[in-house]
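Extracellular solute-binding protein
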Amino acid sequence: MRKALSVALLLVLLCSMSAVAEEAAGTVDYAAWGANLPFVPEGETVTLKIAVPQSADNYDWDQVWFWKWASEAMNIHFEVEQIPDASVDQRVNLMFASGEVPDILFGIGLSTANLVKYGQYEQQLLPINAYITEELTPNLYAWSQEESFENCICPDGNQYVFPYIDRLVFNSGNGHPIYVNKEWMDELGYEMPTTVEELTELLRAFKADDPDCIPMGGSAMGISYVMTHLQNAYGLQTISGDNYGIQPSLRRSQDLVVPCATPEYKEYLTTMHTWYAEGLISPDFFTMDRVTDMAQAAEGKYGAWAYPYDQANPDLEAVQKWYAVPSLLSTTNDVYSVPRSSASVRPGNAVISADTEYPELCMKFMDFFYSPLGTIYGWYGPMAGTADTLDMVGGWYADENGDIQYVDVDNGKFSSGYQYSIGCVAPCSTARMNNRCELGWDSSVYSTTALLQHFAGLEPQPEKRDPNIASQFPHYTLYTYDTLHLAEDQFNTQYVYFDEETAIQVQDLQTVIRNYVTTETAKFITGARSLDEFDAYLEELEAIGVDEYLQYYKDVTGR
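Tokens:
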């Protein structure tokens, strides 16, 4: 019944919104796109303090289009603290320790343990479920009627974190695949690798052919997906973002382990050390930032890279040289161990302080990102030719084929739409809260591109799988569900909630383990510490409580 109602409502919205899109050269009717602006009445002044992460790609916040537009359209004065990516954990811990939490932490993900600790136990986070109503947050409320938010609910029954609503069409749980330059590979007479050993030989061939190249691009601080891919190849179902294997996960779809505390992790370290010692990865792997990583990819220095090449270089001819590597195995592991994508609705990257003076306003601000307008403006920004560009950005447009293009990519200011979005448009690189088109639209058929097409007054088109479209090409080569081999048993511990006391103990243990493993992993890979000392490393992990840490997860999950 809900689905039928959604489709009926959608048809009404389509009819009403199509007229709005005809005003491409003028102003936008925000209310028709789910945003009743301004949130603060004219003549009143309200300040919201918001903390966001800042990567090397992000402009300073007062040069970011969204904050300028939102200040004017919502009538909110913003004070934004940008926290360098490398300092986020430290700064957030200090905020909660001092009790000085800004109104909103936006783009900053908290673990389930921290949600319990800071929300349920210390009551420093606002229980937002009490505010999700049809009147106050109509967009979020509508999504809650269609999707379960259970992964966001703490043991006390409260929800302290805003959900991230995903599509889950073609991404695995370890992010982007490894891509190789197939033109280079073909010229050297190699086949697409299927094991770590074959990939290593291909990288060696790249290096022998061009000593100045970096065979495998990426870095621990930049595009780091290769780290989890290699762990998967050795049987560890490590998930994207968990570069150092801290989060408990399955091993070969069987036992629950802490990846960094297993013999398989030594195999992973051995391969990474080999790559580092032979110059198959950058000598700056642990210090190179994302901007440098992307720039080197654009310059053509890489023979392989775990990121779609169109994000570094939109040139179609260059992009079409890159092909995705299927799920890798190794000589010591013949079990596919790539985790499936995370849940379609999961804890997002935004929470509200329990001490905010303006809980209702904070809720309205966050609800915006679940509206059709917020889905567009919160990531893609304004359409070209509308007054909302504010003469700050060129905006996006749909070309004659319905494909989305960007004025500031066309004119060379940015290398890709992604760089444009995170550089000068979106609130931060992790600002997306909704990756679906709209309620009632089939997310397996329609992407957010269809919403942009509709906004531009065009008929929404099903997502194209066309190798002649640069932005589509990487996803539809070998990296499809026909050839992507996922682990047989899928179990994700990211969304496990502990009781208050246990959550604090787990979080404290995780912090100590993470700090230690991060440091020692870099030492092993660079050769600063011999792999002969791996057994001593495991003993040191035991001494700081890794077995106790794992047991907490086993007890609560029954695995």
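The chain has two domains: 2-7+47-168+344-449, 179-340+488-557.
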